[in-house]
Specification:
Keywords: Dioxygenase, Oxidoreductase. The chain has 133 residues and is of the alpha/beta class. It contains two helices and eight strands, in the order E-H-E-E-E-E-H-E-E-E.
Length: 133
């Protein structure tokens, strides 16, 4: 029998971890649960941060970790370019309202939209994420 394993967090590499944590916390109505600055000798934007569901709700958290050599992914992917190795999928009840909210929080609408009931957005550091019905 395998040991008990429990997925607790997804970590996203970024050039601006604390800024991205604040962006996603606002977008989702979550809270920043960890916010640590750079280690000695690291650039000011280094460090890591984490967001979690509101209140005492237990669940998956999202962490944002500084990547010194971060390159924004290209959407849609192109051969020879940095590709998104993962993205966040966010279910919504009202797609146009969710897009407007994401834009107000600092996201941008991706130029390529592959499905009529999904909107691909880009966060402030260029990671794609999907809003879907």
């Amino acid at each position: 029998m395998p040991p008990h394993l429990r997925l607790t967090s997804v970590t996203v590499g970024t050039s601006r971890p604390r800024e991205l944590a604040r962006f996603y916390a606002r977008l989702l109505g979550w809270r920043v649960t960890k916010d640590e600055g750079p280690e000695p000798g690291e650039p000011e934007e280094a460090g890591w941060a984490q967001i979690g569901p509101p209140g005492d709700v237990a669940g998956l958290t999202v962490s944002f970790e500084y990547e010194r050599c971060y390159a924004s992914p290209v959407w849609p992917s192109e051969f020879g370019s940095q590709n998104a190795s993962q993205h966040l999928d966010i279910e919504v009840d009202d797609l146009p309202a969710a897009v407007e909210w994401a834009l107000a929080c600092g996201a941008t609408l991706a130029g390529f939209q592959p499905q009529h009931d999904v909107r691909v957005m880009l966060d402030p550091d260029g990671h794609p994420f999907c809003l879907f019905l």
